[in-house]
Task: structure prediction
Amino acid sequence: MKTIEPGAWRRTSPLAVLFFFGKLLKTITQNAWQSLAPFAAFVYAYEGELVTKIALGAIAFIVITTTVSVLNYWFFCFQLNNDSILIRQGIVKKKQLDIKFDRIQGINTEQNVVFRYFGLVTINFDTAGSAGDEGNLPAVTREFADALRTRIGDSREHANVEEIEQAPEPDALLALDWRDIVRIGLSDRRVLVFVAALGPLYERLGDSVYNIAADYVESAADKVLPTDVAAGVLVVVLVAITLILILAIISISAAFLRYHNFELFFDGKTLRSHGGLLTRHEVAMQPGKIQTLRLEQGIVMRFLDRYRLTARQARSSHKQDKRKNFIVPVVAAAQANHLRELLMAPEGDALTQIPTSDQFNPISPFYMRSRILFVGLLPTIGATAVAWQQIGPVSLGLLLWLPASILLAYQGWRRAGYLCSEEGLVRRSGVVGYRSVALLYRKVQRVTVTQSRYQRRKGLASLRVYMASGSVRIPYIEHAIAKQLRDYILYKVESSQQAWH
Result:
């Protein structure tokens, strides 16, 4: 079997030019105004027909981006050592990355259509504390990526990367079919954001469609129904149904692109998933790197009786990056429990994240009362009093916020709860849906107990547990219980002989 000479610098496949070209286009897109300013200046200053200007500008753009991509590939090389990987890159500004194996939390791969045909992948190194992917190896063979992943996870420090035999593929823990992907598409909350963002467009579209429909209805049903009523009902129904169908189709199509043939594997040491229609994504994570497990169920998922599971790793304190998360997009309750037992074994066996479980302890009703007082009653009275001077009796409409805030506060209190075992805890929350976050005590970095004046008068406190992936807060529990939990968690942290990462 081919071996690697110690200290030898290597290049990737020439097809890595495609990776650098795509990366350059992404940078240009993210900085569109600055990137396209020279092109716009050229089009404006060059004398000639507009079509000629655009054609010359497009040619110049393609030539420049292609040249830069080729140069990026030419100056890119890497070196493998016993405990790290070195990456050199950059055309004018040279950069060298020294990525230690013990800092790597996972090796994730991507494979577009071209790379799939040639058996190549792009490796993304995910390291602790960085905001995103710290380094990439584009256009390497899948065999090399698998061997490198095994090397980093193997305990033999001096093993050669390409001399490690690959273990057989384990059976899939989870495989999504087309019905699961439809569920993912229908539950995507970004659709709701998209609907809200297009609100002004809906109004204009509604006016145009209304005028067309009104003319048609007036000529066809003048003696059957009042024209305005018939046209209005028809327009509202047609526009609403059309937009809902279009958004649902777009969301489901995006889910198919990302999660087609999604499978989840666990070999005892590494959790790994792969899926994707055009670009094949492969994500890997070691269970020991997991800081928290988050189980979420929105309103659509509640109707479908499914959940979304997210394993969160250590992240940079300055920026939340979703690439640090390992996501299982849809699971049933039994599958969620099984995954928690595997990933938190054996310490998390006594925990449950299913939000309907009766094992959760409620928080104090004063949580609800404080929300009603400080979020509902006082802001409503203040806003109404200020608005009364400007708009008079119309300001009374602001009073509607009070019953709405009462309902939201009640829902937030009713669904809040916590569950503690000897080794970990689960925090449950939600208003419309549910969210439960599970963690192990030994991975906690800091614990605080705080009291507001209102809480102090009621003998209550809030406990906040800080992890490398963020913090978890349990509000409005008895002060004595909060202090006991804090002391017990700190005891478990100090007495544990296992690493927190």
Notes: The longest strand covers residues 133-141.
